[in-house]
Amino acid sequence: MPKLAYLGPEGTFTEEALRILAPQAERLPRANVSAALDAARRGEADGAVVPLENSLEGAITTTLDEFAWGEPLLITAELLLPVEFSLLARPGTGIGRIKRVFTHPAAITQCRAFIARELPDAVVVAAPSTAAAAQEVALPGSPYDAAVAARIAGEHYGLVELATGIGDRSDTVTRFVRVSRPGPLPEPTGSDRTTLVAFLTDDHPGALLEMLTEFSVRGVNLTRIESRPTGDGIGRYFFHFDFEGHVADARVGEAVSGLHRICADVRFLGSYPRADGLSPQVKRGTANGDFAEATGWLSRIRTGQV
Ligand SMILES: O=C(O)C(=O)Cc1ccccc1
């Protein structure tokens, strides 16, 4: 039975994702994303499950930065999970008495309209996770009056639900990933995604276009691109890429080695089955057979077999 660390405590959306991704796993809750990933890096756990992005507000930047700068990990699976937020308080607290709200930053950004409309005077404070917020609000002397979290977190920590479905959109989806220490990659399935980060050699006109060209000329479709500051000053960025296909696919392998040639550094973060099950449209001339045929042709002309 694998042991998997996750963004805890009990009752987070990440726990829900983990239960779907690995129903048999032993679950090790950790206080934040970095601690969950460190548990996997140090071998306390066989891997970890963490949130990566949501469809409304985008990236969970702590996760992106851990993947780029922390000890290397490989993504081995992903999950898309619809999330529903509830406003939770200690029994007896009326909505009119809520002055301080505690929740994860990703929940703050996804419930802005509700908070502005129903709790215009409330101060909203960032918590390590939604369930950590619920756990804290449940303490009798808590400085917070309410948490935004999953209904199940309220049940778990003995809070009452004052409102539910309080997200700005009802169709918000969060993408979670399972990671392991570097090792064998999941086999290609025909419906895969690859993730990497790339660092520029130097800042010059067209630097980003040069990277994108490596994907474009091989017919590799990007599914996410994100710039993150390197920390070396305003205007200094590196890039996260998600794209269709597995690094074992010829076109993807060629694009990735092309990036390696032109970038200062490329950190490969994994090839793994896509949660949506979609398959890439393979452009003419970019199938595995096309690359193999071209390689054979090149070696023939190199040896004079014209
Ligand atoms: O805090 C949680 O419950 C998490 O798993 C992070 C999160 C927060 C808001 C939406 C999705 C995931």
TrEMBL record:
Keywords from the UniProt entry: Amino-acid biosynthesis, Aromatic amino acid biosynthesis, Lyase, Phenylalanine biosynthesis
Chain positions of site Essential for prephenate dehydratase activity: 174
Record's GO cellular component terms: cytoplasm
Matching InterPro entries: ACT-like_dom_sf, ACT_dom, Chor_mutase/pphenate_deHydtase, Preph_deHydtase, Preph_deHydtase_CS
UniProt xrefs under Pfam families: ACT (PF01842), PDT (PF00800)
UniProt superkingdom: Bacteria
This protein's name: Prephenate dehydratase
Species per Swiss-Prot/TrEMBL record: Streptosporangium minutum
